[in-house]
Amino acid sequence: MSPRPSQAVRVIGVASGLGARDPGCADGPAALRELGVFDSAAAPVSWGDILGPALTDAPRVKTVAELCGRLARRVEQELNAGSFPLVVGGDHSCAVGTWSGVRHGLQGPLGLVWVDAHMDSHTFATSPTGALHGMPLACLLGHGAPELTELVFPGPKLRPEHVCLLGVRSYEAGEAALLKALGVRVIGMEEVHARGLQATFAEAVAIARNGTAGYGISIDLDALDPVEEPGVGSPAPDGLLRLDLEFALRVVHGDRALLAMEIAEYNPHRDRRQLTAAAAGRLLDAVLEE
Hints:
- By secondary structure, the chain is of the alpha/beta class.
- It has a single domain (9-288), classed as Ureohydrolase domain (Arginase, Chain A).
- Helices cover 34% and strands 16% of the residues.
- It contains ten helices and eight strands.
- The protein has helices at 28-35, 60-80, 95-104, 136-140, 146-149, 173-182, 189-195, 197-209, 242-249, 275-288, and strands spanning 9-14, 45-51, 84-89, 111-115, 163-168, 185-188, 215-220, 258-264.
- An eight-stranded parallel sheet has the order 2-1-3-8-7-4-5-6, sandwiched between helices.
């Protein structure tokens, strides 16, 4: 599948801030739906249900794992129906469900471009906060809480050689050490500035496509510069410029290997004049437009 004009985009919201330090991102999917930021896309776009936490009085990791399990099943159903899934968080712990679901229905390895200010590669052994939105990529690579690493099917959902992080500029030593030991390619902002976003994004896509049966793009909105896009819970200075990322994303238009997309961490309570909400819509437009 690919995000072609004739292919329907199915938006799956995940209204959870359980993994974040600021839970306001739980209101992100409903706000984006109400604002209609995806309505002008160059392909048919429709919203499915917005999923939310179902368990009560359960440990946080168990609640998030249950939610991610439902998300994974929904993503796989949409792929099987011929839709292009766009998962909209909520905090970035939803990525465990998104990409576990994509991988389960795929006949071969999955590649992933991870656009984020952070590495999201902690485990409980390295995280200074214990926040689950700092752990999803580690979980997808097979490191972390068993409830998340074993989601949908046993074992890692991603191989290190098929993953590339882009836009990183805020991280801790423990997660950097894990990614280095695994051999995951990390393109930080210093390299983006030196080589340009178009070139570095093209490299990230090449890594995700090489030797895989398809790939996805996961975008944490805090990858963008908070001066332009303030509506996130974990802003980090010196981020990607929205127009630059839009331009870079256009390279994947019509790519049949692109299976799904994810936009996470929109926090409407921190936004200003709906700037970040509009940015989310423009990023999808960039993928769909020629």
